[in-house]
């Protein structure tokens, strides 16, 4: 297959002009990020990094990813309600991983008290790469599912218009018209609005729980604006604000600054550095409350790498989703090889295999946000060091996915315009709402394509490695 956009890819004057237009279009459309220097002010902002050109995505795999999203929603929701499964799966991990252990402590404490929350809202993003098989055929393989603070649904809703314009400027109107509509920010807001409505208090607000450092605020604002458009009030608070001003009444309704909170949408709280003692207390207060947490702590735990690995064991999906034969088949088809490093024969064998052949594996700790995984020589060294200690159980092993690279230009403020060898990762957003035992919404809510230069093994857009992209189906 001829590479996409080959006719213009090396035409320097044409590319240069297209890049100027692209950056201005991104600014006009609101594909924005605050600067590294001033991450908490909007006086001066940059465009969020993006590809000059859309990247090729095999249409069959794109459809497959959409087709399995509702199944993943069901699965995550089922795991979040299965205490026995979470307990058993995370038992070895929480012995050695303090962060997961602390989340787990809050989880059990809240269950012991009894849940006040009766409406549940899940917003997740299932990420995939296209693994090149021995015969060259690409296959859809899940990298992970993000069940907390899955981002870039807002900005990606605005990237499409930029790529459409670039293609038109390059004389490719027909191709421009083939780019698929995509608006995760609308889909996410729809879920939040439904949860707000079911909570049932007109005067209650939606609270975005945000980080201390808020570089990616515009991504969140896209979702906020959709809520304001529906006349739903949105407030932005940090853990610190919750600690200082949050309280529960007798019915465990959550109040902050005198305002009742219907929905807490976490864009924070997924890595250890988000927490000090006060923030853990704030987290506990939120979890104990009647407010709809997106996600509740059980759903956050359902998104751990350890759970992902356990799902790939024969029989696990059948136990979690009894009777859902077709869903299970669709889910399982996306799994790459995943391996436990728990102490025992199975873990010993996998550790030895990975040490002998590190380039075939990725070593993953229970962390989110990019830049935590280990590859190649580093993987070998770390595993060699911990292979006989319980510490190894804080990691899982995964087969390394090897996609076919393609060429593109990665546009980033203050960076030279050069062609890069790239690989892409496709994410599908999922949204669901459950009231008591009844699923009242279960949808896919749009997609996100992120592309990075092949020399980076790890990392997303926020980590400064990947950039926003738009799929061009082939
Ligand atoms: N099995 C894999 N094969 C190849 N690359 C991977 C694999 N797993 C992760 N990566 C790369 O590392 C990045 C981060 O891994 P991920 O599992 O998504 O962790 P995080 O929670 O930090 O985002 C991914 O975006 C992808 O680029
Ligand atoms: Mg990831």
Please give a handful of descriptors for the protein shown.
474 residues; alpha+beta; 6-stranded mixed sheet; 18 helices; 25% strand; binds adenosine-5'-diphosphate; binds magnesium ion; Glutathione_synthase_C_euk; Glutathione synthetase
Please summarize what this structure is.
It holds the Pfam family GSH_synthase. The chain has 474 residues and is of the alpha+beta class.
Give the amount of beta strand, in percent.
Answer: 25-35%
Low-confidence stretches: none
Major beta sheet, specifics? 7 strands, antiparallel
Overall average pLDDT: 97
Count of helical regions: 18
Bound molecules: adenosine-5'-diphosphate, magnesium ion
Radius of gyration: 22 Å
Structural class: alpha+beta
Count of extended strands = 21
- Give the distance, in angstroms, between the N- and C-terminal Cα atoms: 10 Å
Shape: globular
Portion of residues in helices? 40-55%
Report on this model:
The strands form 5 sheets. Strands 3, 5, 6, 17, 18, 19 and 20 form a 7-stranded antiparallel sheet that branches. Strands 7, 8, 9, 10, 11 and 12 form a 6-stranded mixed sheet that branches. This protein has a 4-stranded antiparallel sheet with strand order 13-16-14-15, with helices on both faces. Helix 6 (98-113) packs parallel to helix 12 (277-288), helix 7 runs antiparallel to helix 9 (184-199) and helix 11 packs across helix 12 (277-288). With 474 residues, it is of the alpha+beta class. The protein is globular, with a radius of gyration of 22 Å. The chain starts with 5 loop residues before the first helix and ends with a strand. A hairpin with a 5-residue loop joins strand 5 and strand 6 (138-146). It has helices at 6-9, 12-29, 59-67, 69-80, 83-96, 98-113, 153-169, 173-178, 184-199, 217-229, 239-245, 277-288, 297-302, 305-311, 316-320, 325-332, 345-356, 376-386; strands at 32-34, 45-47, 50-51, 55-57, 119-132, 138-146, 205-209, 234-237, 246-248, 254-256, 259-266, 292-294, 338-340, 361-365, 374-375, 395-399, 406-411, 419-435, 438-453, 467-469, 471-473. 41% of the residues lie in helices and 25% in strands. Adenosine-5'-diphosphate (ADP) is lined by residues 127, 143-144, 336, 362, 364, 367-370, 372-373, 398, 400-401, 425, 458-460. Belongs to the eukaryotic GSH synthase family. Its EC number is 6.3.2.3.
């Amino acid at each position: 297959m001829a590479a996409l956009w080959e006719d213009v890819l090396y035409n320097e004057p044409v590319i240069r002009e297209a890049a100027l237009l692209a950056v201005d279009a991104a600014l006009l459309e609101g594909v924005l990020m605050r600067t590294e220097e001033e991450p908490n002010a909007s006086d001066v902002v940059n465009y969020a990094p993006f590809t000059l050109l859309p990247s090729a995505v095999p249409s069959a795999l794109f459809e497959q990813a959409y087709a399995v999203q509702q199944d993943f929603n069901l699965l995550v929701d089922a795991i979040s309600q299965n205490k026995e499964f979470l307990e058993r799966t995370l038992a070895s991990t929480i012995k050695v991983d303090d962060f997961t252990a602390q989340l787990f402590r809050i989880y059990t404490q809240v269950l012991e008290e009894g849940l006040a929350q009766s409406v549940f809202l899940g917003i997740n993003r299932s990420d995939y790469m296209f693994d090149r098989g021995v015969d060259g055929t690409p296959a859809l393989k899940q990298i992970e599912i993000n069940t907390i603070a899955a981002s870039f649904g807002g900005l990606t809703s605005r990237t499409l218009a930029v790529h459409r314009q670039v293609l038109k400027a390059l004389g490719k109107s027909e191709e421009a018209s083939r780019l698929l509509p995509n608006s995760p920010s609308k889909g996410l807001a729809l879920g939040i609005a439904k949860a707000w409505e079911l909570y049932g208090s007109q005067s209650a607000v939606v609270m975005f729980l945000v980080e201390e450092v808020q570089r990616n605020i515009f991504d969140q604002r896209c979702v906020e604006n959709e809520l304001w458009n529906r006349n739903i009030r949105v407030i932005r608070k940090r853990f610190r604000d919750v600690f200082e001003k949050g309280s529960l009444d007798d019915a465990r309704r959550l109040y902050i600054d005198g305002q009742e909170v219907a929905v807490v949408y976490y864009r924070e709280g997924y890595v250890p550095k988000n927490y000090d003692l006060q923030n853990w207390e704030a987290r506990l207060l939120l979890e104990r409350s009647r407010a709809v947490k997106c996600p509740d702590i059980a759903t956050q735990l359902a998104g751990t790498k350890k759970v992902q690995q356990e799902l790939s064991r024969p029989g696990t999906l059948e136990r979690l989703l009894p009777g859902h034969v077709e869903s299970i088949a669709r889910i399982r088809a996306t799994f790459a090889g995943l391996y436990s490093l728990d102490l025992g024969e199975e873990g010993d064998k996998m550790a030895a295999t990975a040490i002998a052949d590190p380039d075939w594996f990725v070593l993953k700790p229970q962390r989110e946000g990019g830049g935590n995984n280990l590859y190649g020589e580093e993987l070998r060294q770390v595993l060699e060091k911990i292979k006989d200690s319980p510490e190894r159980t804080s990691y899982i092993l995964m087969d390394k996915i090897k996609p076919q690279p393609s060429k593109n230009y990665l546009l980033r403020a203050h960076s030279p315009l050069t062609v890069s060898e790239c690989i892409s990762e496709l994410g599908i957003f999922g949204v669901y709402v459950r009231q008591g035992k009844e699923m009242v919404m279960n949808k896919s809510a749009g997609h996100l394509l992120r592309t990075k230069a092949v020399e980076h093994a790890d990392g997303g857009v926020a980590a400064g490695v990947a950039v926003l992209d738009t799929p061009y189906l082939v």
